């Protein structure tokens, strides 16, 4: 009886503390991202706010650079800028590195300017990591399934649109995005 109780409690605690996981469906396939709420609570909460309100749906990956990263979440298919919530604090000093298959917040030159745009690293991009002389880019999770779909994005021909380079010629659109149970 006691062993069963302990096993049940262990399973319950594993469920309670499971990392949030999000499935991203695009017009070229799906991938899953596991978020690190412990090390990047502000970035995860911010990302999940856009997931939960549905505003990532019909946004596109507008900047895809082979060997570097794929960036999305900020524009619709016609390059209309999507509404943003308040910018968040940069959590790049959280100990998570911009390694292959990690997801991080995109931002401007201002370290605390990230809103809705994110990127997925195609390589270990050490120059994006936090250091004393570099505010870095906050990693908040990792692609755990379907990284082949993310890599497929980098094989698409690109062009320049409205002054933005590396835009896939055939838009890569988020068709559905949701938390997994």
UniProtKB/TrEMBL annotation:
EC number, as in UniProt: 5.2.1.8
Reactions accelerated catalytically: [protein]-peptidylproline (omega=180) = [protein]-peptidylproline (omega=0)
GO terms assigned for molecular function: peptidyl-prolyl cis-trans isomerase activity
Alphabetized UniProt keyword annotations: Isomerase, Rotamase, Signal
PPIase cyclophilin-type domain mapped to chain residues: 25-179
Main enzyme class: isomerase
Record GO biological process: protein folding
Signal peptide residue numbers: 1-18
SUPFAM superfamilies associated with the record: Cyclophilin-like
Task of the protein: PPIases accelerate the folding of proteins. It catalyzes the cis-trans isomerization of proline imidic peptide bonds in oligopeptides.
Membership in a protein family: Belongs to the cyclophilin-type PPIase family.
Name of protein: Peptidyl-prolyl cis-trans isomerase
Species name: Vibrio qingdaonensis
């Amino acid at each position: 009886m006691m062993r069963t109780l302990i096993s049940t409690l262990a399973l319950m605690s594993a469920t309670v503390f499971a990392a949030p996981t999000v499935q991203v469906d695009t017009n070229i396939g799906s991938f899953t991202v596991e978020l690190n709420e412990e090390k990047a609570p502000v970035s995860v909460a911010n990302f999940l706010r856009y997931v939960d309100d549905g505003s990532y749906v019909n946004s596109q990956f507008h900047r895809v650079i082979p060997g570097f990263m794929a960036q999305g979440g900020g524009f619709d298919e016609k390059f209309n800028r999507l509404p943003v919530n308040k910018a968040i604090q940069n959590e790049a000093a959280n100990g998570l590195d911009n390694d292959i298959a990690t997801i991080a917040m995109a931002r401007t030159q201002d370290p605390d300017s990230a809103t809705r745009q994110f990127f997925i690293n195609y390589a270990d991009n050490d120059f994006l990591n936090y250091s004393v002389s570099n505010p870095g880019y906050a990693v908040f999770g990792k692609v755990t399934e379907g990284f082949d779909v993310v890599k497929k994005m980098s094989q698409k021909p690109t062009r320049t649109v409205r002054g933005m380079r590396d835009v896939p010629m055939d838009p890569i659109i988020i068709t559905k995005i949701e938390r997994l149970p």
